[in-house]
From TrEMBL:
<feature type="transmembrane region" description="Helical">
    <location>
        <begin position="183"/>
        <end position="205"/>
    </location>
</feature>
<keyword id="KW-0472">Membrane</keyword>
<feature type="transmembrane region" description="Helical">
    <location>
        <begin position="39"/>
        <end position="61"/>
    </location>
</feature>
<feature type="transmembrane region" description="Helical">
    <location>
        <begin position="68"/>
        <end position="89"/>
    </location>
</feature>
<keyword id="KW-1003">Cell membrane</keyword>
<dbReference type="GO" id="GO:0005886">
    <property type="term" value="C:plasma membrane"/>
</dbReference>
<dbReference type="InterPro" id="IPR001123">
    <property type="entry name" value="LeuE-type"/>
</dbReference>
<protein>
    <submittedName>
        <fullName>Lysine transporter LysE</fullName>
    </submittedName>
</protein>
<keyword id="KW-1133">Transmembrane helix</keyword>
<keyword id="KW-0812">Transmembrane</keyword>
<feature type="transmembrane region" description="Helical">
    <location>
        <begin position="146"/>
        <end position="171"/>
    </location>
</feature>
<dbReference type="Pfam" id="PF01810">
    <property type="entry name" value="LysE"/>
</dbReference>
<dbReference type="GO" id="GO:0015171">
    <property type="term" value="F:amino acid transmembrane transporter activity"/>
</dbReference>
Length: 209
């Protein structure tokens, strides 16, 4: 249980830091409502299961030791974030409806699209791969049973999902949405700049070690 608690605390602290995951969850919850935010959070959780699989299979170690593989993954992730950010800036538009009726201005977003946003934002982030690997190096050894290693991965994914669900519920509240609605065009552009900025930052990330 000590290992599970450690994984939970480390994942929660990392999830609470501002990053691309937080940006896409809060953006989708604000612009498209609670369901879109929760589905984005679910996508992030699924991506963390992939990262956990990397760690268990030793792929994370291979990435950390191969500068070519590291750079390939880094540039894919950076390109995706920049693409999403620029798309948000380009398609920013004024809200329909009134400030009183926040739901009238919801921007339709298919659940699977929200899921994909969350999944690809996280799964293409090489920093998330190394974060998951760093957790495993602290709580797991070659002698750690596979079932326990899988439990670590499930804990990471579940913790992130629950945290970002809380984030999405907050930003989807009518009172919160109402406060942002009048500035929707600028908020969409700001989120786009922030997400693209994370992509540019990722592009200049250095290989650990």
């Amino acid at each position: 249980m000590t290992g599970i608690a450690t994984v939970f605390l480390l994942t929660l602290l990392a999830a609470m830091l501002p990053g691309p995951d937080f940006a896409v969850v809060s953006r989708n919850a604000l612009m498209s409502g609670r369901r879109a935010g929760i589905m984005t959070a679910a996508g992030i959780g699924l991506a963390l299961l992939i990262h956990a699989g990397y760690a268990i299979a030793g792929v994370g170690v291979a990435v950390s030791q191969s500068i070519v593989l590291f750079n390939v993954l880094k540039w894919i992730g950076a390109a995706y974030l920049v693409f999403i950010g620029l798309s948000m800036i380009r398609h920013a538009k004024a809200a329909r409806g009134t400030l009183v009726d926040a739901d009238a201005a919801l921007e339709p977003m298919a659940p699977m699209k929200a899921l994909r946003w969350g999944f690809f934002t996280n799964v293409t982030n090489v920093k998330a791969t190394f974060f998951t690997l760093s957790i495993y190096t602290q709580v797991a050894t070659p002698e750690t049973p596979l079932a326990l290693q899988l439990a670590f991965g499930a804990t990471t994914a579940t913790t992130a999902f629950l945290w970002f669900t809380v984030v999405s519920l907050f930003f989807a509240r009518p009172s919160v949405r109402r406060a942002f609605l009048a500035l929707r065009v600028w908020m969409e552009r700001i989120f786009g700049v922030v997400i693209a900025g994370f992509g540019i930052t990722l592009a200049f990330a250095r290989q650990p070690g």
